[in-house]
Amino acid sequence: MLLPFPPARPILWRMTQTLPTYLKHHFLIAMPHMDDPRFAHTVIYLCEHNEDGAMGLVINQPSGLNLGDVLEQTAPELSVPRTVSDRVVFNGGPVQSERGFVLHRGPQQWESSLDLGPLQLTTSRDILLDMSSGSGPEDIFVALGYTGWEAGQLDQELADNVWLSCPADYQILFELAAEQRLDAAARHLGIDLSLLTSQAGHA
């Protein structure tokens, strides 16, 4: 059973207070030789990256659930329009995979919203209630779970050429179909992933 969205994690708040931001608001693109099957062929949006570590959401792995499925378990009393219930819910990563995260645009904040700069990350149930009534944000990305790195861990993976990186493109994040996002993110770098080998460098 999916749990109601929890308050924002203290570690995420602490990380937003720390500078420099490194690759915050960048995409990570898994290199073809990625040997962790959980992250093979993935694109990750980095919500935060600094000296304390990094946190991101995989944006191209649909969970098999839609928002209607989540709301049926967390707020069964709601009557949800199809435009909301049909939205895809993604596997954001292996950490706290039963928890929900909503990445969205807009100045409005909910009970547990973290201001990430151009976007916000909300983890409280009230955003789902507003979405069900049509008053939530238009541009949203919903995921269960997140991907996390300890201090220095992502930096080492980047040095080991495990990931490519490029500035995030919000059209890719909010508009493209899941199966198009990997190639689109690579094209954003001017790269054809099929031509890369295990010796290729990273951006």
Can you offer a commentary on this structure?
Mean pLDDT is 85; it is low at 1-11, 13-21 and 198-203. The chain has helices spanning 10-16, 67-74, 82-85, 126-132, 153-159, 170-174, 181-188, and strands at residues 26-30, 43-50, 53-58, 62-66, 88-91, 95-104, 113-115, 120-122, 140-149, 163-167. It has 7 helices and 10 strands. The chain is α+β, with helices and mostly antiparallel strands and 203 residues long. It has a single domain (10-195), classed as VC0467-like. InterPro entries: AlgH-like (IPR003774). Pfam families: DUF179. Belongs to the UPF0301 (AlgH) family. This is UPF0301 protein SAMN04487855_1528.
Task: Sum this structure up briefly.
The protein has seven helices and ten strands. The protein has helices at 10-16, 67-74, 82-85, 126-132, 153-159, 170-174, 181-188; strands spanning 26-30, 43-50, 53-58, 62-66, 88-91, 95-104, 113-115, 120-122, 140-149, 163-167.
What secondary-structure arrangement, pairings included, does this model have?
Layout: H1 10-16, E1 26-30, E2 43-50, E3 53-58, E4 62-66, H2 67-74, H3 82-85, E5 88-91, E6 95-104, E7 113-115, E8 120-122, H4 126-132, E9 140-149, H5 153-159, E10 163-167, H6 170-174, H7 181-188
Parallel strand pairs: 5-9
Antiparallel strand pairs: 1-2, 1-10, 2-3, 3-9, 4-5, 6-8, 6-9, 7-8
Pfam family, one: DUF179
InterPro entries: AlgH-like
Protein name: UPF0301 protein SAMN04487855_1528
